[in-house]
Amino acid sequence: MIRWGEEKRQADPGFFCRKIVEGVSQPVWLVSDTRRVSDIQWFQETYGAMTQTIRVVALEQSRQQRGWVFTPGVDDAESECGLDNFGGFDWVIENHGDEQRLEEQLENLIEFIHSRL
């Protein structure tokens, strides 16, 4: 499946992005699983300044406490870390285990979204 997806992306970087918006009109899109710079670029080129990028980060220790175990060949693949060096996120949500801090960050994001409706 990964190989098929990569082949589709190589032939047409916007293939999957177009599929999710095809035939649907929404005032706000929350695309929860962009994994590559080309995905972000497609949304920025298509929707311009309306596009807001959000990165959710968690310390490795927090992730391990939730049961995550690093798997070579999976967790170091482009599909998992292709955005690690992308520096242009509009929002960075820290999910290190502090529920109050996470809630505050999400409230700010929701407030922003409501301001754009």
From TrEMBL:
<keyword id="KW-0067">ATP-binding</keyword>
<keyword id="KW-0418">Kinase</keyword>
<dbReference type="InterPro" id="IPR027417">
    <property type="entry name" value="P-loop_NTPase"/>
</dbReference>
<keyword id="KW-0752">Steroid biosynthesis</keyword>
<keyword id="KW-1207">Sterol metabolism</keyword>
<keyword id="KW-0808">Transferase</keyword>
<keyword id="KW-0152">Cholesterol biosynthesis</keyword>
<keyword id="KW-0547">Nucleotide-binding</keyword>
<keyword id="KW-0756">Sterol biosynthesis</keyword>
<dbReference type="InterPro" id="IPR005919">
    <property type="entry name" value="Pmev_kin_anim"/>
</dbReference>
<keyword id="KW-0963">Cytoplasm</keyword>
<protein>
    <recommendedName>
        <fullName>Phosphomevalonate kinase</fullName>
        <ecNumber>2.7.4.2</ecNumber>
    </recommendedName>
</protein>
<dbReference type="GO" id="GO:0016301">
    <property type="term" value="F:kinase activity"/>
</dbReference>
<keyword id="KW-0753">Steroid metabolism</keyword>
<keyword id="KW-0443">Lipid metabolism</keyword>
<dbReference type="Pfam" id="PF04275">
    <property type="entry name" value="P-mevalo_kinase"/>
</dbReference>
<keyword id="KW-0444">Lipid biosynthesis</keyword>
<comment type="pathway">
    <text>Isoprenoid biosynthesis; isopentenyl diphosphate biosynthesis via mevalonate pathway; isopentenyl diphosphate from (R)-mevalonate: step 2/3.</text>
</comment>
<keyword id="KW-0153">Cholesterol metabolism</keyword>
